[in-house]
Amino acid sequence: MSESQQLPRSTPEEQGVSPAVITALLHAWERTGQEIHSFILVRHGKVIAEGGWKPYSPDLPRFLNSVTKSFTSAAVGFAVSEGRLSVEDTVLSFFPEKAPAYISEHLSSMRVKHLLAMATGHTEDTTPHLRRGEERDWVRAFLGFPVNEEPGTRFIYNGGASHMLSAILQKLTGETVHQYLQQRLFEPLGIEDTKWDTCPSGISTGGWGLTITTEDIAKFGQLYLNKGEWEGRQLLSEEWITESVQSHISNGDDPNSDWGQGYGYQFWRNQHGGYRADGAFGQAALVMPEQDAVLALTAAVTDFGAVLDQVWRVLLPALDASRSPLPSDDAAREELADKLSSLSIEPPRHEDHSIKEDDYSGKRFVRNEQGSVADFDCISFDFEDEQVVMTWSWKDKKETQSILCGLGVWQENQLRQEDDIVRAVASGTWQDETTFVVSLRILETAYQDTYQCRFEGNQLHAVYSRAFNVYPDKAWAASFES
Is 148 in the same domain as 13? Predict the structure, then answer.
């Protein structure tokens, strides 16, 4: 990204924030035990702090999970402004040819606004039904799913509703949402090299699947804070933004929960005012209009509420206290810089070597096909002084995949994933004399992959698992023999 496409930078003091407050926030986040990967804090339209916990950084692309929903909402806003649809349009009016044989009163009354507000009348999330069902046409599958309640009466988080918004836009425009937003949103904001997953029908997955950088997340939040204006141009209508970020349906009554402040059009309302685009495991854009601030985050957390609580406890009072420049504080700014440079996530570490590793090094282990499932057919390890090379291969393919594993440190890798090359890091450690554990991080995601490999004579027993996967079905256990 060129400097002309970046958000402008400033010292925290120039924007009315003490560097000591940001340092305190970083320490507070770490005390929660939650794993944040990167952040960018924007005040008065300028980045005042940014950082990443190595091996992650804010300039890395990130799979946004459900932050994608808010981009889909923006796309609907553009289409509404262009007169292509209204939020009062019925969902069935766009797909009469895909309607089920029996059309219930609830289905016939479902409108675009109900998709936007997660108030479709379904009593459960339709996403698993779309992703795992036999019907490859997700629109037909959604319309065929029972609508048991009157739309607009109850909030049920529903990724299928978000996908229907994307499908409607593609039906109207002849473009995927990804294509539709290029000239309207991505290019004006300087958001480049975007990726967006599609369903089997080639429709951008409206509820997840967008990949952009942390700064791009911050730009999106800043656009909304600006009420749709960007560098003197009104990109997205102020009326749409006001409408989409206000609460349209209750999602709880706990005043201390950031998941109970109301839900807008694919945006969550926050405690203490403001709103956010929110994706699983801590991908987020927090917009704080009263404080004229945006906080973009990527993470792999199990308790995002604990992360948000520290924002409200540590950062928010400082933002409320001053909107004018503060005196320069070189000592506090140096302390913040030191803290930012030290941020890191250490790999699991037990022992770097085993007295038995030479017995296993270089051996090729072939999967026992009886009762074994794995992503590959053959695996081998080369145990070296400062790294381990794990290589796997397939019987029906000539290609192999090797992963370099640091010992006690992360080792960078370029991995093939289908038709893509992704950046990853890996580290290995001996859990005991016969069990070697590989930790693999695909840096574009929150995923944390673990390969636990136990050697037993001429056999290797491997167990694979993936943490921080929205649909945790990627796991296997297999036996291999040399």
Answer: yes
pLDDT of residue 419: 78
292 lies in a domain? yes
Residue pair 388/375 in contact (Cβ under 8 Å)? The answer is no
The enclosing domain of 365 has a CATH number of: 2.40.128.20
pLDDT, tens digit (0-9, with 9 covering 90-100), for 219-274: 999 999 999 999 999 999 999 999 999 999 999 999 999 999 999 999 999 999 99
Tell whether 397 and 259 lie within a shared domain: no
Indicate if the pLDDT at residue 448 is higher than 80: yes
> Domain tally for the chain?
2
Domain range enclosing 464: 357-481
Is residue 348 in some structural domain?
no
Residue 338: phi and psi, rounded to 5, are -65, -40
Dist CA 107 CA 204 (whole Å): 23
| pLDDT per residue as tens digits for the range 322-350 | 889 999 999 999 999 999 999 999 999 99
Say yes or no: 117 and 34 in one domain. yes
This prediction has a pTM of: 0.96
**Domain final position from 315, 342, 369:** 342
CATH number of the domain bearing residue 242: 3.40.710.10
List pLDDT tens digits, range 14-51. Answer: 999 999 999 999 999 999 999 999 999 999 999 999 99
In this structure, is residue 471 part of a structural domain? Answer: yes
| Residue 352 in domain | no
Query: What pLDDT score does 46 carry?
Result: 98
Mean pLDDT score across all residues of the chain: 95
* 56 and 188, same domain (yes or no): yes
Task: Characterize the bridge pairing of strands 420-432 and 400-407.
Answer: parallel
CA–CA gap between residue 186 and residue 208 (Å, rounded)? 17
Residues β-bridged to residue 160: none
Residue type, 42: V
